[in-house]
Amino acid sequence: MGSGHRASVPSWAGFLHLAVVLDVYSRRIVGWAMETHLRTELILSALEMALPMRRPTDVIHYSDQGSQCTSIAFGVRCQQAGVRPTMGSVGDCLDKAMCENFLASPECELIDLRIFRSHAEASAEIFAYIEGFYNRRRRHSALGYQSPMAFELAAEAQQAVI
Questions:
Q1: Nearest one of 80, 46, 86 to 62, comparing CA atoms
Q2: Tell me: the pLDDT tens digits for 32-43?
Q3: What is the Cα–Cα distance from 15 to 133, expressed in whole angstroms?
Q4: Is the dihedral of CA 104, 110, 151, 22 positive or negative?
Q5: Is 15 exposed, middle or buried (0-12, 13-18, 19+ CB in 10 A)?
Q6: CA 59 – CA 113 distance, rounded (Å)
Q7: d(CA 103, CA 5)
Q8: Is the Cβ–Cβ distance between 101 and 43 less than 8 Å?
Q9: Helix (H), strand (E) at residue 152
């Protein structure tokens, strides 16, 4: 399925924490969640959003060494969904480099340019960034300068021809 990681989004009301699940194939964010806490429910919510979108079978979920990703609840849910959780060693970012790269994008292109007054405002802007810009319009050199959704549509069209 991809890679999962989280970032913190500052606002006047305090931090919101963003967890994402990125499909490594298309670089599309297929699951995401925002909460005021860093408990396991945050990453479980992002995973729950991704599961019906991708209906994974025998896929790998790369993550960091955070307590949320090493929790029993996360491991059990991954097992139920047919997802194999894995993580690199401490300080190793290679398995989750694509996700780290994604998280740098809204940071540079949105978060560093604004001050959010509330959690609701921050959440709405992050939603618009992910669903309205990143997945639909942001081009990636690794995808032949297509957006994640355009890349997926082109791949589906090619499969239909075969």
A1: 86
A2: 999 999 888 998
A3: 23
A4: positive
A5: middle
A6: 36
A7: 8
A8: no
A9: helix 148-161
Q: Which single residue is written with the structure tokens 């399925």?
A: 1
What is the separation, in whole angstroms, between the first and last Cα of the chain?
A: 24
For residue 151, name the pLDDT band (cuts at 50, 70, 90).
very high
65 secondary structure, DSSP code: S
Q: How far apart are CA 30 and CA 32, in angstroms?
A: 7
Is residue 57 very low, low, confident or very high in pLDDT (cuts 50, 70, 90)? low
| Adjacent-strand bridge partners of 84 | 60
Quick check: helix, strand or coil at residue 18?
strand
Tokens representing 47? Answer: 């995973």
Q: What is the layout of strands, in order, in the sheet containing 59-63? A: 29-35, 16-22, 2-9, 59-63, 83-87
* Cα separation, 158 vs 137, whole angstroms: 20
pTM confidence score: 0.82
Residue 125 and residue 61: Cα distance in Å, rounded?
26
